Amino acid sequence: MISNSFKHVNSWVFDLDNTLYSPEVCLFDQIEKKMTDWISQKLSITKESADILRSQYWKKYGTSLAGLMREHKIEPEEYLTYVHDISFDNLTENLVLKNLIENLPGKKIVYTNGTAPYAKNVLSALGLLNVFSSIYGVEDADYNPKPEYKAYELVFKKDGLNPLTSAMFEDEPRNLKVPHQLGMKTIFVSPAPKNEPYIDFHTSDLSGFLKHLI
Ligand SMILES: [Mg+2]
């Protein structure tokens, strides 16, 4: 018996990092460090300057990569391979979450601003790889990142997903804006709530939320 707000939903879209595992795992810290190293090396600037640039581009363009492509014409593949080459030792299998996602009625997909091969590594470590029918990365959106409209348009078209019968889980609030405009149910997954008109639900506990849903 699914809760009323989600009765019409037959496609479930999950962000990856800090959504399908807790931010306490600090996996993304490793990636940020690698981004800073890469930017520092390629642009021949100090790590401090690289770190500032990384965060400025993230704010302005959606991802650091999008800023590097726009302002420095970098090729995305080498950068993406480098920054996603990290240790997954801190991730553990989450059988509870696996069962809950499996029991959602309809299609379950992952859509991340990372790459699909990286997402597969994370999902393997979480024991969630076989739960999802498709895994989409930034390469599937021609390197346009969420929160850009074009990114969702490209990925949803590729997937054949109808936003009006879909829900999206995300830890980055701005990434829920377009999905909400498109008619998706939006769930903000984060330790602290945020009051935005484009956030339909908030949870600090994805498994707990899904338990109540089904
Ligand atoms: Mg995320």
Instruction: Please report the first level of CATH classification, the CATH class of the largest domain.
Output: Alpha Beta
Mean pLDDT: 96
Q: Please give the number of β-strands.
A: 6
**What would you say the CATH architecture of the largest domain is?**
3-Layer(aba) Sandwich
Shape: globular
How much strand? 5-15%
Class derived from helix and strand content: alpha/beta
* CATH topology grouping of the largest domain: Rossmann fold
- The structural domain count equals 2
The percent of residues in helical segments reads 40-55%
Low-confidence stretches: none
Strand order of the largest sheet: 3-2-1-4-5-6
What does this structure look like?
Strands 3-2-1-4-5-6 form a six-stranded parallel sheet, covered by helices on one side. The radius of gyration is 17 Å and the shape is globular. It is of the alpha/beta class. The chain has helices spanning 27-42, 47-61, 64-72, 76-83, 95-102, 116-126, 149-159, 177-181, 206-213; strands at residues 11-14, 107-111, 134-136, 166-170, 185-189, 201-203. It has two domains: 4-22 and 91-213, Rossmann fold; 27-83, DNA polymerase, domain 1, CATH 1.10.150. Helix 1 (27-42) packs across helix 2 (47-61), helix 2 (47-61) packs across helix 3 (64-72) and helix 5 runs parallel beside helix 9 (206-213). Helices cover 43% and strands 12% of the residues. It contains nine helices and six strands; from the N terminus they run βαααααβαβαβαββα. Magnesium ion (MG) binds at residues 15, 17-19, 171-172.
